[in-house]
Design goal:
The chain is an alpha/beta fold. It has a single domain, classed as Macrophage Migration Inhibitory Factor (2-Layer Sandwich). The chain is 26% helix and 27% strand. The protein has a four-stranded mixed β-sheet with strand order 2-1-3-4, with helices on one face. Helix 2 links the parallel strand 3 and strand 4. Helix 1 packs antiparallel against helix 2.
Length: 124
């Protein structure tokens, strides 16, 4: 925890998903709300997508951050804004689409049903 999934459309020229994940992970670690080693992120490029009814010329980056409960709305809003700010610095003004949208949502994981087990090497 947290889990971060970044979806981005294939038409965003110059978008470096690995750099985006690194920057967002740093933002989350620096927030003080998460242990660095617990931040798990992944990016998925979307080759098939639609935005509205246009045939082309639009793109998006959508980030979903899933966290355990216990943080109030102000903290969740601050996390959302910090991730959005990081994305804005990574995307060139002309990202290959005539219009693109950046979206961030923060969802709470249902703690009663979330499970985690860490496999680590045996100590020497």
């Amino acid at each position: 925890m947290p889990h971060l999934t970044l979806h981005y459309t294939a038409n965003l020229a110059g978008f470096d998903a690995d750099a985006a994940l690194a920057a967002i992970n740093r933002v989350l670690a620096d927030s003080g709300h998460f242990d660095e080693v617990s931040i798990k992120s992944r990016a998925l490029r979307l080759d098939h997508y639609r935005i509205g009814t246009a045939d082309a010329g639009r793109g998006f980056v959508h980030v979903q951050l899933k966290i355990l409960p216990g943080r109030d709305a102000a903290v969740r809003a601050a996390l959302s804004q910090a991730v959005l700010d990081a994305l804005r610095t990574l995307l060139p003004a002309s990202a290959g689409a005539t219009e693109f949208q950046l979206c961030v949502e923060v969802d709470e994981i249902v703690a009663d049903v979330y499970r985690k087990h860490v496999l680590a090497p045996d100590p020497l």
